[in-house]
Write a structure and sequence with these properties.
By secondary structure, this protein is mainly α. It is built from 16 helices and no strands.
Length: 459
């Protein structure tokens, strides 16, 4: 590759990424550029500071500016509404102060990505700053993962951007294409078919009995996994086709045997971000009580990161409290006179996986519901124990599609979990292309080709 083409590639990638983002709403390209420039400039000042106190000032400037942007666009109305409700409960009537604010797509992702750069420079995790604004801006705006992650660290992606374009072997490009196809299969085949079942139940919950809502919650578990893991795979696959490596974001989360295990498998880039930049600075696990407090605080932060609503905060609190309860069970099990190791092996492990899936599925209820009233409505219907099959069950086609595609996904994930997957280099290209063709055929047969955006675009 010629020197001129090498030098032109990164600016071309930057322009392409901004065109990609601007296709949604060009006005918010300026916001993306503003956040990028703040972190770039503060990063230079942090690295060049002679005293630790000066570096801390520039770090706080970066944190304050970016979190201020995030607060205004994502949380301003939520906190104003909550304050109005609290004052009204005390008999104080105030005029409505909320603003008509459009939430920029992907703002939580690129804000957290930029903050990790400043924090890593300050802590020494990143040896030196990026002196080229074009390369740094490309790191922030890199189009495959810009709007819905994974949240990539500067120390992982910036060196790849600095190296420029490279000759990517065919096997690597083909591996990226496989990820893209599997991601689209998860999104269009699994998630969108499940969405048809889920949306109907949450739109009119009173029309469905307990069994229908349990089916709906299971379908939402499959929907959000297929939707978000599907996007992550598409992003990782497209980056791989171009010769870039992004971090893994999902590792078969519904095979987890506990909440600690679940968060090592689900949205890995966010959970590791919160671990490194929130959990550890708060004191980590230095004592058992400190760990309990920090786990709850981190999960509350995770809930608030996902959305400006009490439903997300309740979801985060549930995961935090259940994680603390799990730690208590682990503590008691370690001191039990009866050996309990069988629970993590064979049939015992399967029981734990099933129990964990049930708990995670139940906690998805406040995540999906528009408000807490709908949460209580659905819970009360489930508590009524009406598990009869309705006459002429609606949406049977979608439910059957979800069952078929979910079984395919479960089988493939189970084989991978058991270590049955062969490495790309050891698999014949004909076999791999045949597998891709089979997935495309299943996609055409069972895909729900509507106009459903990815769930995590709203975050």
């Amino acid at each position: 590759m010629s020197l001129a083409r090498t030098r032109a590639f990164v600016p071309f990638l930057l322009v392409a990424s901004y065109l990609f983002y601007g296709y949604w709403d060009y006005r918010f390209c300026a916001l993306l550029a503003t956040s990028t420039f703040i972190d770039y400039y503060c990063g230079l000042r942090i690295a060049d500071a002679k005293r630790r106190e000066d570096a801390r000032i520039w770090l706080f400037l970066s944190l304050g500016a970016n979190l201020g942007i995030l607060f205004f666009f994502k949380y301003f109305n939520f906190f104003v509404d909550s304050a109005e409700v609290a004052l009204a409960s005390l008999g104080v009537d105030v005029a409505r102060r909320t603003l008509d604010i459009i939430l920029p797509v992907g703002i939580s992702f690129y804000i957290f990505q930029g903050l990790s750069y400043s924090l890593d420079l300050y802590s020494g995790q990143l040896a030196k700053p990026e002196r080229s604004f074009v390369r740094y801006a490309t790191f922030v705006a890199f189009f495959p993962q810009l709007v819905a992650g994974p949240i990539v660290r500067a120390r992982d992606l910036l060196p790849q951007i600095q190296d420029g374009p490279r000759n990517v072997p065919f096997a690597v490009r083909f591996g990226g294409l496989e990820k893209v196809i599997w991601g689209f299969f998860l999104k269009v085949g699994l998630a969108d078919n499940a969405a048809a079942v889920v949306d109907a139940r949450f739109a009119n919950p009173e029309f469905y009995n307990a069994l229908s809502h349990i089916i709906g919650l299971i379908c939402f578990s499959l929907q959000i996994y297929g939707d978000f893991a599907g996007y992550s795979l598409i992003a990782i696959g497209i980056a791989q086709i171009y010769g870039y490596t992004l971090c893994e974001n999902f590792a078969r989360p519904y095979f987890a045997i506990g909440f600690r295990d679940f968060w090592k498998r689900w949205h890995i880039s966010l959970s590791s971000w919160l671990r490194d930049y929130v959990y550890v600075p708060l004191g980590g696990s230095r004592t058992r009580w400190l760990r309990m407090r920090n786990v709850v605080l981190v999960m509350l932060a995770s809930g608030l990161w996902h959305g400006a609503s009490w439903t997300f905060i309740v979801w985060g609190a549930l995961h935090g409290l259940l994680s603390v309860a799990e730690d208590g069970v682990r503590w008691l099990a370690a001191r039990s006179p009866v050996p309990l190791g069988w629970l993590t092996r064979g049939p015992g492990r399967l029981l734990l996986i099933g129990f964990m899936f049930m708990l995670v599925t139940l906690t998805w209820l406040p995540f999906r519901a528009e408000n807490m009233d709908k949460v209580w409505t659905i819970l009360s219907i489930i508590a009524a124990h009406d598990f009869s099959l309705p006459t002429g069950m609606q949406q049977m086609t979608s439910i059957v599609r979800v069952a078929v595609i979910g079984s395919v996904v479960l089988l493939i994930d189970a084989l991978i979990e058991m270590g049955a997957r062969q490495r790309y280099a050891g698999v014949n290209v004909i076999v791999r292309s045949t597998a891709c063709s089979a997935l495309v055929l299943l996609l055409l047969l069972f895909g729900s080709f509507g106009n459903r955006s990815f769930i995590y675009f709203q975050f």
